[in-house]
Amino acid sequence: MERVTTPLGADAGDDAALAALGEELRTAPAIGLDTEFMRERTYRAQLCLLQIATPARCVCVDPLGPLPLAPLAPGLQAEGVVKIMHAARQDLEVLWPLFGAMPRLFDTQVAAALAGFPAQVGYADLVRQVLGVTLHKGQTRTDWSRRPLSPEQIEYALDDVVHLADLKSALEQKLAQLGREAWLAEELAALGRPEDLFVAPELAFLRIKGLNELDPWRRELARELAAWRERRAADRNRPRSWILSDTALRGMVLRVPRTPAELAALEDVAPAFVENSGEEVLALIEAQRPPAQLAAPGPRPRPDPTFTAAVKHLAEITRQVATQLGISPELLATRRDLEALVQGDTAAAPLRGWRGPVLGERLRAAL
């Protein structure tokens, strides 16, 4: 496979080359994809480099150059073209604003987990273990937004796509031997759904630790504050933590400030936040109509021993089944899945799809 070491799109004269690449993508049976991006200073990740491998060549495309990436869209959106990626979620999140839905995805990390590798196995480790190729990862901490890119950066980026097709073939062969092709098809069908890639503002509070045992009023306040932060971060394209840290948000939920002085006294609330956003946040709190006698947050309640024992029992069954199958337990069920089962959730993940006959029936019987 040819390795093209000059990125396309960095020069206005690359329009014909981009068009040719787009046509190549549209007619290819499968292509490898990867991205390099930056998100330290923004809410939305900034695409800095797009790596593509076709059957004939692998090439980098520069999205920061003067040319639009529209010629690539038909190939990336084509139903007949398999898009091979590794740990695809973050890449899909970056690519969605440019190309929308990309059907027929193949995630080598997902396939590897079903074949018995660790659930979060890295690309370099997988290439080494499956293909016997050692990749040089010296550019892991590079700033991909800086130009020009060095030859070492380009080679590093190309390495991330050049082996994807071979990984796909090897993993498909392994899963066929194990009789797990249907498992893979089900997992791949669930990739790339926008509801899984992007958090709804109203559900953003579920990602914040330390809010699980709130009273109903505080839980609703947490929902409103987290949604406000999510929208503000998106509008300004700044990281959530730059708008309001989790520590500060938890403090507002637990202490319920009513005045600028009370807001300023909370941990990790800067004076600039009080000055610029304090009035808006305090109005939001008041709009929730705090109870006249709002109880102070008490100590976290001790877990119900019966509930804890049931979850522990289901976790042990999950571990046993995973050992028998040679896969990671978290691929079968997370602790949250098991807690949902004990709480009576009949639609919990371990009861659905391929997990149902493999694990779900045993868990249901244990309950």
Reading the helices and strands in chain order gives EHEEEHEHEHHHHHHHHHHHHHHH
List the total number of helices. 18
User: What is the level 1 CATH name of the largest domain?
Assistant: Alpha Beta
Spatial strand arrangement across the major sheet:
1-4-3-2-5-6
Give the total of beta strands. Answer: 6
Please give the domain count. 3
Shape, please?
Answer: flat
Task: List unreliable stretches of 5+ residues.
Answer: none
Name the beta content range: 5-15%
Radius of gyration: 24 Å
Kindly report the average pLDDT value.
93
**Major sheet attributes:** 6 strands, mixed
Question: What percent of residues adopt helix (DSSP H or I)?
Answer: 40-55%
| Structural class assignment | alpha/beta
CATH fold name of the largest domain: Nucleotidyltransferase, domain 5
Keywords:
Nucleotidyltransferase, domain 5, 367 residues, 8% strand, single chain
